[in-house]
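stage 2 :: seqdesign
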């Protein structure tokens, strides 16, 4: 007799490692291309000398620093092993198998996997023709069984962010017992003044949760640390479903050091924002369909040409993130790396 695995897991894809192309430029995961600052490496090295000890499971030093910086009480913060884990903790904290999680589609790839693994029902609401979240349709999808709505802003992988007026209208129309998660993994790259800071909304409304991460603008993707800002009731629930010690001590030290160096790290993001505008306008002038983006990536709506585009990029030693039949997401990087990608995008058309 073979062991019995949950049959529904058959519907989940097994892990397929990204193709490694020696010497290729990696623009597939929305990382920053520049390595950690010397001060952060130093903090990592120092923390490395104490890894025989378990981490502080409450991540007190990090929570205290975040509390000061964001001006929110420590009781309203929860940390996680990357904000993707906080997405899972949120579903676990709010849903049973009778409940529904709503999210846009296409959006962050982790949402459907998390909903299924956590045994919640999932409701996917199609994006608009402009690749933005269709908030009125998402509000209309709420039923008495709904416990959680993921609002990914800017939306991964398409790029647009939700503006203040439409978000407030949406929040007004969602019942206040439904948790609305503003997944702001790319917040530091937002330049549109009409895009609200989720923290302001979380201060005013008890059902709003903001997720942020050190993986993107802060350049710590390999260390896995993110955080949630929520009402104390939700933050406490997140801490209850937290796997003990899952934010490791090296990650905690690196996150604190990154907050110390925030000015320098966020200045680097401004260079990426400038490049984003250049990359997008170049792609538009080549004739690609590229939605407006507030993140550190662009979306090429390629439809059936996606796989051919992906192969062409790989042949040109550029790794992008292709979603077969739909489009490709490409990280905005340094001017030199972006030029290599743009050359590939140009030669694809010839
Ligand atoms: C990258 C990303 C995250 C989280 O990344 P972690 O590395 O787990 O912190 C969360 N949400 C979205 C939409 C992302 O793109």
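stage 2 :: out
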């Amino acid at each position: 007799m073979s062991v019995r695995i949950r049959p529904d897991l058959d519907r989940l894809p097994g892990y397929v490692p990204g193709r490694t192309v020696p010497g290729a430029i990696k623009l597939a995961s929305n990382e920053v291309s520049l390595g950690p600052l010397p001060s952060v490496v130093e903090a990592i090295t120092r923390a490395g000398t104490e890894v025989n000890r378990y981490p502080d499971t409450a991540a007190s030093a990090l929570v205290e620093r975040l509390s000061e910086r964001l001006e929110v009480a420590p009781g309203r913060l929860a940390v996680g092993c990357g904000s993707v884990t906080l997405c899972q903790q949120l579903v676990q904290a709010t849903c049973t198998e009778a409940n529904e999680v709503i999210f846009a589609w296409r959006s962050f790839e982790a949402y459907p996997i998390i909903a299924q693994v956590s045994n919640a029902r999932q409701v996917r609401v199609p994006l608009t023709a402009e690749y933005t979240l269709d908030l009125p349709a998402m509000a209309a999808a709420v039923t008495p069984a709904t416990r959680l709505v993921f609002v990914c802003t800017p939306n991964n992988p398409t790029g647009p962010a939700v503006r203040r007026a439409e978000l407030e209208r949406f929040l007004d129309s969602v019942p206040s017992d439904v948790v609305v998660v503003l997944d702001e993994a790319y917040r530091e790259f937002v330049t549109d003044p009409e895009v609200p800071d989720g923290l302001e909304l979380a201060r005013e409304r008890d059902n709003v949760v903001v997720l942020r991460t050190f993986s993107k603008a802060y350049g710590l993707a390999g260390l896995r640390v993110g955080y949630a800002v929520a009402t104390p009731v939700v933050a406490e629930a997140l801490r209850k479903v937290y796997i003990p010690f899952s934010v490791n001590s090296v990650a905690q030290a690196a996150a604190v050091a990154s907050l110390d160096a925030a000015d320098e790290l966020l200045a680097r993001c401004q260079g990426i924002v400038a490049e984003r505008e250049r990359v997008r306008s170049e792609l538009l002038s080549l004739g690609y369909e590229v939605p407006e983006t507030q993140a550190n990536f662009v979306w090429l709506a390629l439809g059936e040409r996606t796989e051919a585009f992906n192969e062409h990029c790989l042949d040109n030693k550029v790794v992008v993130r292709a979603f077969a039949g739909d489009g490709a997401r490409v990280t905005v990087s340094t001017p030199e790396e972006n030029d290599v990608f743009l050359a590939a995008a140009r030669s694809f058309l010839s």
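stage 3 :: structure notes
- Residues 262-286 form the longest helix (25 residues).
- The chain has two domains: 16-36+263-349, 38-260.
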